[in-house]
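Lab notebook, design round three. We kept the backbone fixed and only want residue identities now. Task for the bench partner: fill in a sequence for the structure below.
Input structure tokens:
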């Protein structure tokens, strides 16, 4: 216990410290007071949460706003910022207003970790909402683990991962890939017997197709009935592979499982249609395009093709209709491209509710500290636009519904199949 004289020295020492433009000026400090005061000052200087007088807290937004992935990621930024506006309008988080810091990694995978470090170290954000591709997520993962940061990742992915510093609000393979393949094998899906696995050449499509191929082989599909090809980001000429798909589908029992990502989908679907192929001839089951990507495509020629997701704009509920209306209104009021013609989709919903999950967890924990917030997320139940959901109590993933949707001429989906209830996320198995 400090003596009265020591206490006096400490109090005097603290009052003698001045912070000016990042420098520390120390005057008239006793030896005892100096040591304790320096600890106090450094704690304030290094820890952005120690300054209780601030009325704002920072969060990071890490989505590509330019480059090949901007077609998908720009709307995720918009969804995050809408959620921030909603939360701020209701008083913020733990009495503090959220200040978003938006950066553009420009679809450059090597820029993602640099921007992530900038957000965590320079901007000292409390949490980051971002990434789409698995390669971008894997690039930033070591940064978040080293800095003990927190990333909310909103997109379906290949599984095989559970970082202690990432919350996965998108689907695992058993919540998207496997149900889609099961549907195509069923009577409702046309009893498909031949599968052409077509993907962009990076980690998600290759790992997803390894999972899909293993599943199909286990279901008795002969290996010669499974084709597999990959193309780089921004590839534009699919005529040769579409010729091979047409030949593969001559007997009428084939389908395409597509893990193409980004704006390359525009070229693929356009050339597929110009070849004269239709959904009746060879349906495409896509895992990486949704309503937002379809805004940039001629959808009248895509009718009948399929997607597997955990949310669709066409879900008919008061909560979802309100969400869709609010997003359109937000985009119009903010002067964003598309205005009130904007749409919602699965990754948009997951990006949006992720912000609210973080807010609820902070309030549950009574803290912004990552080591307290993460345990508060585990098992958390919450209302999302697509219905009631919950976080897994252990594996950092999200219980989700599963749907197969059929593309309509207006770029929306008719839901033609759904799993019963919420499906447990299993990132390492089926």
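Proposed sequence:
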């Amino acid at each position: 216990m400090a003596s009265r004289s020591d206490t006096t020295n400490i109090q005097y020492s603290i009052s003698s410290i001045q912070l000016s433009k990042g420098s520390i000026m120390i005057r008239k400090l006793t030896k005892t007071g100096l040591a304790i005061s320096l600890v106090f000052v450094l704690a304030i200087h290094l820890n952005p949460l120690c300054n209780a007088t601030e009325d704002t807290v920072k969060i990071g937004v890490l989505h590509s706003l330019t480059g090949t992935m901007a077609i998908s990621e720009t709307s995720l930024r918009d969804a995050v910022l809408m959620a921030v506006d909603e939360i701020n309008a209701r008083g913020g988080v733990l009495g503090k207003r959220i200040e978003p810091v938006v950066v553009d990694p420009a679809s450059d995978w090597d820029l993602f970790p640099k921007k992530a470090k900038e957000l965590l170290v320079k901007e000292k954000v409390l949490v980051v909402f971002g990434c789409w591709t698995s390669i971008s997520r894997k690039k930033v993962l070591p940064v978040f683990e080293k800095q003990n940061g927190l990333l909310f990742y909103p997109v379906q992915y290949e599984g095989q991962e559970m970082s202690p510093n990432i919350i996965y609000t998108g689907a695992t393979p058993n919540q998207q890939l496997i149900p889609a393949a099961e549907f195509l094998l069923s009577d409702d899906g046309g009893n498909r017997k031949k599968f052409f696995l077509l993907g962009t050449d990076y980690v998600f499509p290759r790992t997803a197709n390894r999972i899909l191929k293993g599943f199909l082989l286990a279901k008795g599909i002969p290996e010669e009935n499974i084709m597999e090809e990959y193309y780089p980001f921004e590839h534009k000429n699919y005529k040769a592979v579409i010729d091979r798909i047409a030949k593969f589908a001559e007997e009428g029992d084939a389908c395409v499982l597509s893990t193409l990502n980004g704006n390359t989908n525009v070229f693929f679907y356009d050339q597929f249609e110009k070849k004269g192929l239709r959904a009746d001839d060879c349906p495409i089951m896509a895992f990486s395009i949704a309503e937002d990507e379809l805004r940039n495509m001629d959808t009248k020629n895509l009718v009948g093709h399929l997607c597997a997701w955990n949310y669709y704009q066409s879900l008919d509920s008061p909560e979802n209709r309100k969400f869709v209306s609010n997003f359109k209104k937000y985009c119009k009021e903010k002067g964003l491209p598309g205005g009130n013609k904007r749409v919602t989709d699965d990754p948009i919903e997951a990006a949006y509710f992720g912000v609210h999950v973080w807010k609820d967890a902070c309030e549950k924990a009574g803290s912004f500290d990552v080591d307290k917030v993460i345990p508060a997320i585990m098992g958390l139940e919450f209302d999302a636009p697509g219905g009631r959901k919950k976080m897994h109590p252990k594996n950092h993933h999200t219980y989700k519904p599963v749907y197969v949707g059929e593309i309509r001429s207006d770029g929306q989906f008719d839901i033609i199949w759904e799993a019963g209830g919420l499906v447990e996320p299993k990132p390492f198995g089926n």
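Keep this in mind before ordering anything: The CA atoms of residues 105 and 115 lie 7 Å apart.
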